[in-house]
Task: structure prediction
Amino acid sequence: MVVSAHPLASEAGLLMLRQGGNAVDAAVATTFAISVVEPFSAGIGGGGFLLLRNEKTGEIKALDFRERAPLKATRNMYLDADGKVRPNASVKGYLAVATPGTVAGMYEVHRRYGKLPWKEVLKPAIALAENGFTLSHQPTWRSASVYNNRLQVILNNPAARAIFTRNGEFYQPGEKLIQRDLARTLTTIAKNPQSFYTGDIARAIANDMAKNGGLITLADLKTYKPIWRTPVCGKFRQFQVCSMPPPSSGGVLLLQMLNIIGDADLKSWGWHHPNALHLMTETVNNSPLNRSTNYSGSFIPDFAYREERQLPL
Result:
């Protein structure tokens, strides 16, 4: 079974399983495919976390491939001369982008645990970018948010405008979105994933950053490495629950919340009983998770292979 935010991405993962691949092959194929069909929520310009359990040994491992702050980042980079926050500087534009980790993370887990050839797991994503895909008539909450809030940001960037819009509007449901630059980029990554960090792709990113006030340099890209971490684990009733450790906040807070409700007999109260609702509301609202950092979701959905094109940030 493969589950993702888009049926075409899930189908990419299922295709790997049908070809004799394992769960890692499916996960990597799905990740690259989702970067094509949902570039606003995940992409090769972003990063993430991965939790893996070895069926034979029972070992659970966590891979941190989140974005890293550029070496030139400073604590006051989002403040003006008077020390006041510059509106949207941390969520829009070149300063909002950190050193991407998705490509390195996917290659690391596939190198260790994948079964099919690296080139094979990227084929579905390349095809979706090269040949295009039909936009769904059922927008998700993520896509609806992008359509409502990000149009002007996309229009302000020439490369993004050329790819994602026509006549000042996003492509509409039922229309086909083609991303040939992204297809070329993915094809290069399929041949050599390090090209993203030390080759032509890396140089294109660094040059574009330098021209537009961004902070990512070749040194940032060259030194990026995903990190294997020890999962955080705890008891919830008779179960052991393991999740992602810091810098992810979710795993620690999940265990905290499970411990808060662990002694409660929610089943005896019944569905939507006031006591159950009260407990769950306090558990979640009192958790720092409800007040956690608002991730900027920095992404590079279809940056150009040519150096003179701008990154649609």
